[in-house]
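seq:
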Amino acid sequence: MVRLKIFSGRWGKSLSEEICQKLGVTIGKSSTVKFKNGNSFVKIEENVRDMDCFLIHCIGENVNDDVMEMLIMVDALRRASAKRITVVVPYFFYARSDKKDQPRISITARLLADLLEAAGIDRVLTMDLHSEQIMGFFKKPVDQVSGLSVLCQYFADKNLENLVVVAPDAGGAKRARTFSWALDAGLAIIDKKRIGNEDKTVSSGIIGDVRDKTAIIIDDEIDTGGSIVNSIEMLLEAGAKEVYAACTHPVFSATAVEKMQGCKATEVVVTNSVPIRKDYDEKKIVVLTVADVLSKSINSIHSGTSVSSVLDKYKY
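struct:
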């Protein structure tokens, strides 16, 4: 580990420190300043020449500021003669903008991939992409690991009976099906349609049997929370005994934390891939750590061993 350096953006320091503790290294020294004119300034405060550098970057209160900080940190590491730079983005910025589904719009996820490569990255490590085609936007290697294994283990340990795993929409059916196999549970899908660019959806029905069952809604992320709250209420109205909601990425924008705490789910189970930026009820919102799977993946990349062998241990 003598040639390994791990740095963190302003957000996600807690996750970065957990990862460093598991790897037996100290977090790299850097400083970020936001000037009054809105410009960001980043300085790497230690020698990184010929080092294998990993930059762990989570989203915070302003995604555009976070993107710029990440790009500037990559550029600073490259200009400081780092041997290799791997960006670790547990939640990939602009992941939903992965296709041109309306006239005259940007495929922003592809644009971000181009910007990262222009800044000087050598590799990307991420978690549970909203769409796996994003990996193809990069010319550099991309490793995708999953936080769903952590969620699956949590529910397996609870020994819940008469389970049904629910996909919140047809697009999440594959994820929910795999989750249901791991828990030996049934499968249901909510028929949902998103309304244009608005943060709301219309649900028209449930495909599958949920009556008198314990339902687990599984998704890759929860953003404003409106859709998941509607899904919870639909399941309860359809006769579900109780409902759990789970996702890898708790984006929790706007009033999502309040919605999650006030919803009728027994628990909302998430990971720390995105730091929750408000106080929350720990009995209602359960946060699991993904530091173990990320630290093992970083170790594999650094040592030149197979990342897929790490992933085999986290299959659910």
